[in-house]
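Person: At home tonight, work slowly through the protein below, taking as long as you need, and write a paragraph about the fold.
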Amino acid sequence: MKTEDTTETAGTAESTQHTGTAGSTDRPAGTADTEATDQAAPPPEDARARRHDLTAAALAVLLVTAAILIGRYVQNRTGTLQVQWPPLLASWDPHLGPGTPAALTMAVLVVAYGPPLAARLPWRGLLAAAWAGSTAWVFSMALIDGWYRGVERRLTTKHEYLRVIDRFDDIPATLRDFTNHIVIGEPGNWPAHVAGHPPGATLTFVWLDRIGLGGGAWAAVWCVVVGSSAVLAALITVRVLADERLARRAAPFLVLAPAAVWAGVSADGYFAAVAAWSVALLALAATRRVRFPGAAAVGGGLLFGWTCYLSYGLGLMAAVLLAVLVLARTARPVVPFLLGALVVPAAFTLAGFNWWTAYHLLVERYYQGAGGVRPYAYWVWANLACAVLAAGLAAVAGVRRSASYAPGAVRKLRTGTVAPAQRLALLVLAALVALLAADLSGMSKAETERIWQPFLLWLPPAAALLPARTARYWLVASVVPALLINHLLWTGW
């Protein structure tokens, strides 16, 4: 009898079954066998794997503790970390807010009922519930800081995009002149976030303003609602590349992702959704699980092109896109994807904006500011502590499982017999590679709990590799730190 815990080790029954795209219908997976086998005593290798999971989580806690203690020492002594509560960009501010009851209620409901509901809901119902749940979770976390401070004001501060809306009255002229205002010292240099991103980020809010949705409140609603749709993209991708059972098991962890602390309200949540839908559309095209795969590939390319004009560092999402093609064992969507991906760069280039020139000027601007002061020797590892807090301990344990599956998965790639759990593991590890590349670049010193949202999105699904019977415990282990951070610290996002 097949158990729910067949993802425990690469040598279990699940890792030897064929890797077809299970879950191609809306019928939820059966639960009778699961309930029966979950009552059985786990085999010795399962207990060993769980000890390794706990060890990984404990090491992650030690990493965060070291980042806090060493960070406070360095910051108090030299001030070079440029954050008040290292490793997070935050300050000590214990508080409650109108979002507190909602956040606590969401956490309790998803922990208690999320796993069984995710297993039983029709697939489309699960997608709708996941989007609604993620939106509610992010909004409730933002409202812990209150409507004005936590939502309406967030995207209107001196560093943010909405401060320059009036300078885009003539969009083509502004794009031609954009690079002249990136470096500090130039007349009218852009605020930090405008200078730190290609103009696609700011143009989003300009266009919202043009259609009558101007101001901080509408910008916040846009970022939260669109950003929360990233959960759907991730679930669809996991379903078509691995299987539906793993997608269902990942759903509660995506809905209650600790990254909600920084996604509400931040434009980076919106960036994460655009990047995630690019991956999902390519996955649908590559597996031909959509009626018009060519159109899906072009759409994925368009979104990837737009992603690269939202944030300079998101070209690293190419690692995840490449993993999609490898797992699908096809290059068929590459040409339409690339054709779609060229549209946005061509449009911006014809409008007079040079991406490469702007990027090199950004590097100069970065080292003119805090990036030139913050020590690489601390942040190259403390950034990972930020990632632990934003992804959650369940994701850490899941990544450990992913790493253990990787050697066997790579060996089976040529024959196409990679098990669903191994497929998910490779997808997760591709996102981890992109994250580590961003870390080593030195262009992500601090604030990575927010900046890395597009990469961090793909780590919580790894929790689907953990035993189903332990899901609630891992959800609690991830949610409680997030709630504490949002209630004890003022994160500024």
